[in-house]
Amino acid sequence: MNNEILKAFIKFPISRKARNRVKEYLYEKSVRDLKLIMTLLVKDEENLIEKNIRFHKAMGVDGFIVTSHNSTDGTNEILERLKKEGLVQEIIYIKEPHLDQAKFVNRMIKIAKHKYKADWIINSDADEFYYSKDLNLKKSILKYKKTNVNVLWVDSTFLFPDNREDFLSCPYFVTKPFLEYEAEKLDIKDKEEFKEFIGSQGCTKVIHKAKGYKRIIVGNHDVKMVNKVSVQTPEISLYHFNTKNYNELVKKIKRNVERMKTTPFGQSMHIKIMIDEYNSGKLKQDYDSKYNENMRKFLIEQGVVTIDKSVSNFLQLISDKKLI
Q1: pLDDT for the residue numbered 263
Q2: pLDDT above 90: percentage of residues in the chain
Q3: How far apart are CA 320 and CA 170, in angstroms?
Q4: Residue 44 pLDDT level (bands cut at 50, 70, 90)
Q5: Which CATH number is associated with domain 34-321?
Q6: Nearest Cα to 204, choosing from 170, 249, 240?
Q7: Which residues lie below 8 Å from residue 238, measured CB to CB, with a gap of 6+?
Q8: Domain spans of the chain?
Q9: Taking the model in full, what pTM does it have?
């Protein structure tokens, strides 16, 4: 029975139970029919990439297109295994030293749109986890089906690391940074260790339709669309494990040293600053001043840092029930 017949059927005087069953069937079919593809641009992410892909597969993503930029650890082997398993559709290997992020992501978006007939696309990094309150990203996206919305804005929620090795189980996130007047009242506005906890974290990402796509903006922070209509979605949260622990931070810096030599000025400035701090011996001091136990307790008391186990609980659910 096709959708039109079913829609006509529920208009007739039938029981509420039967009508609800038909509506539920139509809804679940619309979820299945929506094609959601995620693109991932990665470099040396052997400790994250598999959990990221399995997390998002269980969260409703239909397929993955991955670009590996000069990975030298076990990332490529993991990707090939996941491709054989059917989770990853395509892997693009890049050997050139310069990371042209927008160019590489644009290529994946076009593949997702034209080859895999994506309806919606998420462009992500290995340390970004998109969490739907519906436990299904497609269900959250479908809430905009009867609108002209073609871009969804999602604000990053950054991890506050406690230096544990299993950083994905860390439950501390910066969810409500200090407002300027709050920082002034507490006399912390001009203290270096508090600067990243004051004001907007300034890391919005976009989820967008394939139809009408024109161009991605560097960092996946925005997108050019035909007749762009955007809205910030409360149904989807982005958990960003940008700073995981000190050892992982050092690894991140070391693997970016060479590429930063050819990165245009103005791009990835936060990486350049960290490289300078590492070379000058100030990185550990800076890290410890921001991410220590007393700071964490203070920020929790102020409501800046929140205990949020959404990602770790969902990863545990996937593991326990062998969902993927």
Answers
A1: 67
A2: 75
A3: 19
A4: very high
A5: 3.90.550
A6: 240
A7: 128, 129, 130, 131, 154, 155, 156, 157, 205
A8: 34-321
A9: 0.90
